Amino acid sequence: MKLIFVGDPMCSWCYGFGKEMTALAKLHPELPLEIVVGGLRAGATDVLDDAGKSFRLTHWARVEEASGLPFNREGLMARKNFVYDTEPICRAVVAARIIAPDADLLAVFRALQNGFYVDAVDTTDGRVLARLASDALRKEGHSVDISAFYKVWEADSTIALAKKDFARARSLGVRSFPALLLENNGQIQTISPGYAHVEELEQHLQSALQPLHLS
């Protein structure tokens, strides 16, 4: 039995959801957590223009109100010629999973999110991603060199594994992010099809677990 969190680090509602997932994971250390990256805008080539920035700021305001997490609006507006491609950051999550399979991948996921939403660094740049992810892994007790992480991140095999994650997200029936699922003996049950506070997540999870405990 395990939880499956399907999301994308550059999805604003996933950023808010990361806080709730951390709280839920603390409530249920007995449940392994698998993270599947969804590739929200994987392979996008269009430059983020002012209209696109304004559209995202509207979403950011809603997420900030719901989650209480900070957003660097000035950092977004100051971006020039930015292509909102989420494949590189999703691939960084996959690379961290390869390098340290027993690490707290949610901590890495959230560190990458913080880099984009708070620090306003270029999370489409592999070198930047390698620094953020390796720093997060070191905080989790895994000694990872930035250059070594970058080599894993840029490998063709890692690119292929990221694409497998994108396909898995679709095969799980997830069409929007974030999503939280419960898998038990190959059976998938939706705990939350979108953003929710930890109290609501816990209520839905307990409802799903109760018949399993009774059987």
Structure, explained:
The protein has helices at residues 12-27, 50-67, 73-77, 87-99, 105-117, 126-139, 146-154, 156-171, 198-214, and strands at residues 2-7, 33-37, 179-184, 187-192. The chain contains nine helices and four strands. 56% of the residues lie in helices and 11% in strands. The chain is globular, with a radius of gyration of 17 Å. It has 215 residues and is α+β, with helices and mostly antiparallel strands. The chain has a single domain (2-214), classed as Glutaredoxin (3-Layer(aba) Sandwich), CATH 3.40.30. It starts with a strand and ends with a helix.
CATH architecture: 3-Layer(aba) Sandwich
CATH topology: Glutaredoxin
The SSE order reads EHEHHHHHHHEEH
**Low-confidence spans:** none
Can you tell me the overall shape?
A: globular
Oligomer: single chain
Radius of gyration (CA) equals: 17 Å
Protein name: DsbA family protein
